Amino acid sequence: MKVRAPSGRLVYASPGTSDGDRMRALGAAMRRYAMGAEAAGTLVVLTTPSGYASALAQAIDEAAHPGVVGTVAGDNVIFVAARDGISAAALRDELSGHLLQGAA
Questions:
Q1: CB under 8 Å to 85, separation ≥6 — which residues?
Q2: How far apart are CA 7 and CA 50, in angstroms?
Q3: Which of 11, 35, 52, 58 is most buried, judged by most C-beta within 10 A?
Q4: What is the CATH number of domain 2-100?
Q5: What pLDDT is attached to residue 16?
Q6: What is the DSSP letter of 9?
Q7: Are 64 and 6 in contact (CB under 8 A)?
Q8: Three-class SS of residue 16?
């Protein structure tokens, strides 16, 4: 079903999908596909293995993260645009935090 993201854009979500479910799905996608994250101006640049950037960008978009305006994916790099008032460094730290979840 379609739900309205904080940006006002319509996105697809499973019936009953909560914010927590979307963030857990984002965390799983980050752990599966992301290799690194770097803040650059107002963007966060995520690197993935070749061919996986589109899948991770889609997961970020579907998560409807309140600090993300949108993503642009290439083959192995994603530009994540931070929303006004959110620093790229803070967003990078939050997204990178997903990489460490479950690590011992």
A1: none
A2: 30
A3: 52
A4: 3.30.1360.40
A5: 54
A6: -
A7: yes
A8: coil
Q: What is the separation of C-alpha 67 from the centre of its chain, rounded to a whole number of angstroms?
A: 9
Contact present, 41 and 78 (Cβ < 8 Å) = no
Task: Please check whether residue 80 is in contact with residue 61, taking contact to mean a CB–CB distance below 8 angstroms.
Answer: no
User: Cβ contacts of residue 34 below 8 Å, gap of 6+?
Assistant: 46, 47, 48, 56, 95, 98, 99
State mean pLDDT over 10-27: 69
pLDDT confidence band for 104 (50 / 70 / 90): very low
- Residue tagged 């935090």 (tokens): 97
pLDDT grade for 80, boundaries at 50, 70 and 90: very high
Task: Report residue 95 as tokens.
Answer: 């997204």
* Nearest CA among 44, 37, 56, 48 for reference residue 83: 44
Half-sphere exposure of 30 (CA within 13 A, CB side): 26
